[in-house]
């Protein structure tokens, strides 16, 4: 997700990203690479015209036939996760969620021109490797349905695990008898608002009896991300929860100091070398600043760690989602810069067994 960084870092990322166009994976893990090297640095082009695609699809009489046919088209054209793509697109054209759509085999006989026109347009966009999340316009994250749109980073399942670990940690803290009435959180790089909004919703479920309230300050340097977070907050938060969220278009390099209880970030952490091998679903669509973390992927992480002592209370915790190569690099960094006053407490693995989440503390 976008985060505020120093001007020099930002300019270097901008030069790198504008010089070489690349894209990323569709639904599968944010961190899978080497999947489709034939599209390396290239812009995807569909070999099907709208007219030919329409002819292929309009012979179908039922939704099951249509899913099968569109899946075949996507597979032939090298689109990953072809059946999922077809199911989401067709469901959206019916005005249904994928879950609702899969409950029945629908007839196509009564579908008029608007249905077929939308279906063909969405399918062509998917053939051009636009992520299906942007086509659908929303995505599920931690029991929330969030609006998504380009170029804001699409929420990934790995980040749900980060949210869950934070909530589990604070559930224990509050049940141990914390007397604080307010817990303050700073999110750096809010993107669609997935982390901040999930924390606010999840907090209420276990903290109600303690009367402890979570207050979140969410920062991003991208106006699109700030706008999208505000839209999602208006949709998923109850009125009293909306008062507990502050959203700012803000560079962390100039962020005014405050003392938060914890900081969370899913920063750009893909290295330049890995970024050059990723698959074509991102460069034309998802913001490169939300992914690229410099030569070793650690540029933004270092900025966050150097500034954390200014933003957090003593004993405040830092929660980061990182690349599996980063925990050891973070250990070395903290040893070399002891004056920043950060201790690495734990490293957690994701659902695939990769070291993905770091919990740290201001000392």
UniProtKB/TrEMBL annotation:
User: What Pfam families does the annotation carry?
Assistant: MTS, PrmC_N
Q: Residue limits of the Methyltransferase small domain?
A: 182-277
Q: Does the keyword Oxidoreductase apply?
A: no
Q: Which residues form the Release factor glutamine methyltransferase N-terminal domain?
A: 65-137
Gene3D superfamilies in the record: DNA helicase RuvA subunit, C-terminal domain (1.10.8.10), Vaccinia Virus protein VP39 (3.40.50.150)
Question: Per its record, how is this protein called by name?
Answer: peptide chain release factor N(5)-glutamine methyltransferase
Give GO BP annotations, semicolon-separated: methylation
- Xref: InterPro entries: DNA_methylase_N6_adenine_CS, HemK-like, N5-glutamine_MTase, PrmC_N, SAM-dependent_MTases_sf, Small_mtfrase_dom
**Classification via PROSITE patterns:** N6_MTASE
| Keyword presence, Metal-binding | no
**Main enzyme class:** transferase
Species: Galdieria partita
Q: Reaction catalysed?
A: L-glutaminyl-[peptide chain release factor] + S-adenosyl-L-methionine = N(5)-methyl-L-glutaminyl-[peptide chain release factor] + S-adenosyl-L-homocysteine + H(+)
GO cellular component terms, A-Z: mitochondrion
Identify a single GO molecular function assigned to this protein. Answer: peptide chain release factor N(5)-glutamine methyltransferase activity
Q: Which UniProt keywords apply?
A: Methyltransferase, S-adenosyl-L-methionine, Transferase
Q: Which CDD domains match?
A: AdoMet_MTases
Q: Which PANTHER family match?
A: HEMK METHYLTRANSFERASE (PTHR18895), MTRF1L RELEASE FACTOR GLUTAMINE METHYLTRANSFERASE (PTHR18895:SF74)
* EC code(s) of this entry: 2.1.1.297
């Amino acid at each position: 997700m976008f985060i505020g960084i120093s001007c020099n870092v930002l300019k270097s990322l901008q030069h790198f990203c504008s010089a070489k166009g690349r894209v990323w994976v569709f639904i599968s893990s944010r961190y899978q690479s080497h999947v489709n090297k034939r599209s390396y640095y290239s812009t995807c082009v569909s070999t099907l015209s709208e007219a030919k695609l329409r002819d292929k699809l309009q012979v179908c009489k039922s939704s099951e036939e249509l899913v099968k046919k569109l899946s075949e088209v996507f597979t032939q054209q090298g689109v990953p996760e072809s059946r999922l793509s077809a199911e989401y697109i067709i469901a959206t054209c019916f005005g249904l969620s994928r879950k609702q759509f899969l409950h029945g085999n629908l007839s196509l006989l009564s579908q008029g021109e608007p249905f077929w026109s939308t279906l063909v347009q969405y399918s062509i966009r998917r053939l051009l490797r636009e992520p299906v999340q942007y086509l659908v316009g929303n995505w599920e994250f931690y029991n929330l349905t969030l609006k998504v749109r380009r170029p804001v980073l699409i929420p990934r399942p790995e980040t749900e695990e980060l949210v869950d670990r934070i909530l589990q940690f604070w559930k224990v803290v509050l049940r141990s008898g914390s007397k604080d009435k307010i817990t303050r959180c700073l999110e750096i790089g809010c993107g669609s608002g997935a982390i901040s909004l999930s924390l606010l919703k999840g907090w209420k479920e276990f903290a109600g009896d303690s009367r402890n309230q979570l207050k979140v300050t969410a920062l991003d340097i991208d106006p699109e991300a700030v706008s999208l977070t505000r839209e999602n907050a208006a949709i998923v938060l109850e009125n009293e929860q909306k008062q507990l969220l502050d959203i700012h278009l803000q560079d962390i390099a100039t962020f005014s100091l405050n003392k938060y209880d914890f900081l969370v970030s899913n920063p750009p952490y893909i290295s330049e070398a890995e970024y050059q091998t990723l698959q074509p679903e991102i460069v034309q669509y998802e913001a490169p600043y939300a992914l690229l973390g410099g030569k070793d992927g650690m540029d933004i992480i270092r900025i966050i760690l150097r500034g954390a002592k200014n933003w957090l209370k003593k004993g405040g915790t830092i929660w980061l989602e990182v690349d599996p190569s980063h925990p050891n690099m973070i250990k070395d960094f903290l040893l070399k810069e002891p004056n920043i006053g950060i201790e690495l407490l734990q490293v957690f693995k994701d659902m695939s067994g990769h070291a993905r989440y770091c919990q740290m503390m201001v000392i």
